[in-house]
Structure formats: C-alpha cells, structure tokens
Amino acid sequence: RMEEHENYFNREVFNRMSEKRPDRKWLEAKQSSPDTVFILFFNLNPLVSASEESNTAHPGIKLCRLDASSVNKELLQKSGTTVIFLGVEKQRSSSSSPPNEGNEPTAWFALNTDDNPMNHLQLTNPNSFFLKPPMPGLLKLSEAEAGIIAQASSVLAWHNRYSFCPTCGSNTNVEEGGYKRTCFNKDCRSRQGIHNTCYPRVDPVVIMLVIHPDGNQCLLGRKKTFPAGMFSCLAGFIEPGEAIEDAVRRETEEESGVKVGPVQYVSCQPWPMPSSLMIGCLAVAMSTDIKVDEKEIEEARWFTRQQVIDVIVKGTKPAFTMPPRQAIAHQLVKHWIGMSSNL
Amino acid sequence: RMEEHENYFNREVFNRMSEKRPDRKWLEAKQSSPDTVFILFFNLNPLVSASEESNTAHPGIKLCRLDASSVNKELLQKSGTTVIFLGVEKQRSSSSSPPNEGNEPTAWFALNTDDNPMNHLQLTNPNSFFLKPPMPGLLKLSEAEAGIIAQASSVLAWHNRYSFCPTCGSNTNVEEGGYKRTCFNKDCRSRQGIHNTCYPRVDPVVIMLVIHPDGNQCLLGRKKTFPAGMFSCLAGFIEPGEAIEDAVRRETEEESGVKVGPVQYVSCQPWPMPSSLMIGCLAVAMSTDIKVDEKEIEEARWFTRQQVIDVIVKGTKPAFTMPPRQAIAHQLVKHWIGMSSNL
Ligand SMILES: Nc1ncnc2c1ncn2[C@@H]1O[C@H](COP(=O)(O)O)[C@@H](O)[C@H]1O
Ligand SMILES: Nc1ncnc2c1ncn2[C@@H]1O[C@H](COP(=O)(O)O)[C@@H](O)[C@H]1O
Ligand SMILES: [Mg+2]
Ligand SMILES: [Mg+2]
Ligand SMILES: [Mg+2]
Ligand SMILES: [Mg+2]
Ligand SMILES: [Mg+2]
Ligand SMILES: [Mg+2]
Ligand SMILES: [Zn+2]
Ligand SMILES: [Zn+2]
Q1: Model confidence, pTM
Q2: Please, where are the H alpha helices in chain B?
Q3: How far are the Cα atoms of A120, A283, B102, B208 from residue A132, in angstroms, in the given order?
Q4: Minimal Cα–Cα distance from A317 to chain B, Å?
Q5: Residue A117 per-residue DSSP state
Q6: A98/A222: higher pLDDT
Q7: Which of A229, A263, B1, B189 has the greatest CB tally within 10 Å of its CB?
Q8: Do A169 and A243 contact (CB within 8 A), yes or no?
Q9: Run of H or E residues at A14
Q10: Phi, psi (5° rounding) for residue B98?
C-alpha cells in the first residue's frame, strides 16, 4: 500500500543541507576544500564523458567530476558564472573518492558559465564534452547521476531565465548558495515579507494514464513533435487554484475529449527541462469518444492491454513505440499492466 | 481505494475553457454580455458582503457579483487594472442568475485594480466591502466561492508580482485572457520557444502528518507566528529536482529532526496565498527524537491519537488547537484518525 516507485531523476544522492546555505563562510571553505566535487555546465549543458562500459548496467554517459584545484578562481567569479551548492554526499561512497581528513562527507557544487570554460580549465579527461542538446543524452546517466542532474539543471535553468526581478525589473543578486535571488532595488516590494519571486520555480504537471471504462484499454496520444509512431500518456501543467485530480480531468478532456472520473496518484518525477514536477496518476474514463485538441495533440487512441504489453515488455516488432523506461509515462503504463495481470 | 477528498479551495465551479483564451473577440463579447459575472479585487482584496444567514451551512461572507453594466469601461481599460477570464459555469445554477438568450453558460471574469474602484462603480449592495487582509475572512466563503477565489486570487497575485520579464527586465503584456504575459522586448530569449517565464506560477508544497512508529501518535509543530496554543502539520516547499516523497522526508527532518520512511499521498489543496499547491501526505517516522529547526519552528511534539481526537472531533476544552476544517492540515489529521478507528 505504501510502496514507492523510484523513477529516473528521483534519486536523492545528497543531503541538501539547506541550513548551511546562508553560511557564506562555510560555503567558501567547502569550495576550496580538496575533497569537494564540482560539476560543470556551459550554457546549461553538462560536461560529461562516455563511460567505458556502455551496457544497461553501466549507462552510456557519466558526469565529469572536477576538484577545486581544476576550477579556476577566475572562472568562479566571472559575471556569467553561477555556482550553486548541491549538498553533501549522504553516504561516503566506498570507492569513488578517497576519504578526507576530518571524515566530513564530500560537498558538491554545480557551476554554469556562458563563456567557454575550456579556456579556464585543466581537464583530466580529454574525452569529455558538453552534452548538447540535453535530450536524449540526459537519459543515459546512472540513476544516481540522473538525480544530481535533476537538481543542478533545474536550479541553474532558473538562474539563467530569472536574473531580473519580476516585480520591478531590476537586476538581482544570487544568495543562499544559489537558492535565492534578491532584488538590488531597496524599495522593491519583493524585499518586504516573503513571496515566491525570490525562489527557484518548480512547475507541477499532471501526467495520466486514462483507463477505459472496460478496464482493459488505456488512452495514449501523440504530440506533433513526437518521433513517428510514438505514443505517450497525456499531460499538462496544473493551473493556479487547481487540485491535481481536477487538472487530470481538465487536461484529459481538453486534449482528448474523454471525460474522467476517479483519479489516483501513483508516483512522481522531477523533469529538469527546465524544472517540472511530473505528478503521475491513473484515471478512470467516464466516456470513450475521442476528439483531440489539434493544437497540441495529433492523434489519441485507445490501446488494449495486450498492445501495450507488446511494446513495454516484449518490444518485438511492436505496432507503435512508447517513451523509454526513464520516462514516468513508461512507468505508469508498466504499473497499470502489472496491477491486474501477472507478467 | 480511489476515494477523493474535497478540500476547501478545491471546488471547480467553472469550465475554464482554455481554448477560448487566445480568442480576443470572443472574450470581448463575453465581457459586454449582460449575463456575464465580474468579481472585483482592489489591491488583491476581493469585494464581498456579509451573507444574511451566518451559520455553518451558510458561511459568513459572499463574493459580490457585478454585471457588465456596473463595471465601467474606463475601469476595465486603466493601466492598473488586470482582467482575467475564469471560465463559464459548469452547470446553469437554477436560481442565482436568470437564463440568458442563447442559453449559453454564464461567463465569469475577475478584475483587480490598484485605484479605489468605488470611484468607478455603481454598487447594488451598500454593505459590500473589500476583504482585507484576506485571512481568516477568506475561510468564510461557501465551498463554491472558495473554489472561485482559489483560481482568481492566485492568477491576479501572479500579475501583481510578475509584470516584468524575469529574463530581460522589460515590461510585459497581458495575453490569453490573463494566462500569459509576453515580453515587450522583441529580442528577448523568452520569446523563443516555450519556457515557464510567460505563465502563471504554482508552487508545490508538501504538507505531512508524520506518524510515530508505534502507530498511535502523530507529529505536529508550531511556527512562531501561529496563534498561541496552535499546532499543525509540518510543511515545506518542494525544491527543484525533488520528488514529493523526498521533499516530505527532507522537510520533516529539517524542521523536527525526525527521520521518515514510507510516504503516502492523501489529497491536495490549492492555497491562493499567493499560489501554492499543498500536497498532503501521511508519512511513517523511522525515529522519534525531536530537534526543531529554531529558525522556522518554535516547538514540535508527538500527540496521541486521543489528544487529536479531543481537538478535532470533540473540541471541548482541548489542551491545544489545530487549524480549522478549511485547512488541509485539519483534514489530514481527520483522515488519520478515521483510518483505523470508528468514530
Ligand atoms: N509553466 C509553463 N511552462 C511552459 N508552458 C506552459 C506553462 N504553463 C502553461 N503553459 C502552456 O501550456 C502548453 C502545454 O500544454 P499542457 O502541457 O498540455 O498544459 C505550452 O505550450 C504553454 O502554452
Ligand atoms: N516558492 C517559495 N515561496 C516562498 N518561500 C519560499 C519558496 N521557496 C522557498 N522558500 C523559503 O522557504 C521558507 C519556508 O520554509 P518551508 O515552507 O519549510 O520550505 C520561506 O521562508 C522561504 O525562505
Ligand atoms: Mg499536454
Ligand atoms: Mg495546459
Ligand atoms: Mg494540454
Ligand atoms: Mg523549505
Ligand atoms: Mg515549513
Ligand atoms: Mg522547512
Ligand atoms: Zn525588484
Ligand atoms: Zn524579456
């Protein structure tokens, strides 16, 4: 009953230690500690390298981990550079890094720059490159590194788009280890009381597998931008003043014309492009006629349980495709086919 | 299993008709239709009146509903005025408004102004007033009107704080019936592709009732700002790159020092101050020692099932108080005490 799904991008590798974010001295000390790890982004694209063994157990791409000595002080202080504190490792990994003096857990930072950092860096790995554009390479990380990217990419994307105060248009200053931006204008309303304008943005999205009233079919749709033959769950942004369950009903009806009754939460997934939180639900249809919203959806169809089993489990010559296992849409379908049949 | 909780602020009275938002002609026609209802805000405070019967079935305050003829064209077009389209009534209410010609459902708009609208309005109800500050008056609306306020207040609060483009600092223009703001600067990156900067913000928050490993106690805390004697569920903003369940674990440990294992979603509630989505969960504690984060929490304690029953159900001379039924914290506690005992 309380079983929890771990989706790709969900893994929390760090203790985020938010209580240390206001402590500039502590952060500065950590930034120059030899044990600290930096990950690097150039225009929001992470520095990675191909991992030696590229099979499913060892995914194809890994983050480059830099240490304080290879991150130039000049680069750290440039105006186009943003540094954020990610946290400290929850458990000391036994092999990946040597234990440090005080036996304190290793701190991690992420750095984004708009100036080619190759000019400032001494890279140990000559095969490293900036992953650009992030998809689908971003889905080739290990589970742990996907969790790190989920946090780092979304906070950095926020800095990249929210450098001006939305309340008065002034410039803002990065504070609290990268989790706050404060308006430079002393008279700005954003400096009185607490409001969301100073904090990173997370956009809640519903993503739903809608089940036919007969219990044996599910509703999948295609956006125009999908690769040919691919179908996925319907999804949409939760609007202000709306509950999760109502957003599921509204978006399903908008996109497919199908009316939905009961809705059940299954699991969620941070989606760092740029900073969504996908809230995955099962939903029961109360009607079956399909009429797609042609602005967003090219086609929506009912698929039988057997058809999705063929794609998800067997994968041999399927009549259509679905997103890969790293996408919560895939996991929702898998959850549904596992609910009432034994595979 | 698929039972759904309806919390205060959750009721969806309208079909939001998002497909009509880009249709300026349609919106303008609706704005001057005699059947249309306007609700009015002055500096984000809604115009209300005391309802005649003030008992629990008929709560104490109701929204003033204005028609197109009493909303001055001048007021509609002032620079400090924002008008948003709320939607059309889902079902024709049989009594509240006379049926209109084409039998089209009644459209609703919300208007916020920074200039005292009493100068521009002919008010039919002389006992109307602007509800200021919104709490706790906002909790005295009917369920239906609370749903309307949830939508209207949060979209209007967004306009009030986000009138400048966060990407370049330029002014922005209201579009799509009040659900989009577009940067005036033609060269701005916010005008290429789709990003969240142009859309209303919703902040997902976790709120959790943490259950003691013995199953018979729950963890409640007090913020310094709470009324004396009041305790509530712990809560906190979901951070970028974080799943709901991990946010529950992180915030509980930050605020109380208690470690949490399994987490189960129960229900959610839009909280329009300014625009949060409270995601309510039950969580099972894996440790019991309490160490509060003194910046945020004044005190946290384990309360027995009987103690919370005394407050929530009996209410006679309780040793402490809890938020009222309109708050999801109250409903989470009620859900827990209802789960395994028959009241
Ligand atoms: N926070 C947001 N970020 C990006 N697009 C949004 C957002 N909120 C609303 N939209 C709009 O929603 C469309 C996607 O539709 P949907 O995902 O079905 O809600 C986008 O093309 C935008 O027009
Ligand atoms: N979106 C947001 N809106 C308001 N405050 C935020 C937000 N995100 C983080 N915070 C910070 O979180 C504090 C409240 O703590 P909590 O609700 O426990 O996360 C506020 O005082 C702010 O410093
Ligand atoms: Mg969609
Ligand atoms: Mg939408
Ligand atoms: Mg949609
Ligand atoms: Mg917090
Ligand atoms: Mg809190
Ligand atoms: Mg907190
Ligand atoms: Zn400002
Ligand atoms: Zn701009």
Answers
A1: 0.95
A2: 24-31, 73-77, 143-161, 244-256, 305-309, 328-340
A3: 20, 36, 54, 39
A4: 34
A5: G
A6: A222
A7: A263
A8: no
A9: strand A14-15
A10: -70, 145
d(C-alpha B149, C-alpha B141), whole Å = 9
User: What SS3 class is residue B41?
Assistant: strand
Taking CA atoms only, the protein residue closest to ligand 2 atom 3 is: A196
Nearest atom of ligand 2 to the alpha carbon of A201:
1
Query: How far is CA A272 from each of CA A26, A157, A261, B244, rounded to the nearest angstrom?
Result: 28, 8, 30, 15
Q: Record the tokens describing residue A274, joined without a space.
A: 């740029």
For residue B52, the tally of other CB atoms under 10 A from its CB is: 7
Global ipTM: 0.96
**How far is ligand 3, taken at its centre, from the CA of residue A206, in Å?**
9
Question: Are the C-beta atoms of B39 and B111 separated by less than 8 Å?
Answer: yes
- Top pLDDT among B1 and A63 is at A63
Helix (H, G, I), strand (E, B) or coil at A239: coil
Q: b/e string for A48-67 if b means 16 or more Cβ within 10 A?
A: bbebeeeeeeebbbbbbbbe
Indicate yes or no: CB of A240 within 8 angstroms of CB of B169.
Answer: no
CA distance A128 to A115: 17
The minimum CA-CA distance between B174 and chain A, rounded to whole Å, is 14
The pLDDT tens digits of the residues spanning B36-73 come to 999 999 999 999 998 876 555 555 899 999 999 888 88
Q: Are A159 and A174 in contact (CB under 8 A)?
A: yes
- For residue B193 and ligand 1, the question of a CB distance below 6 A is answered with no
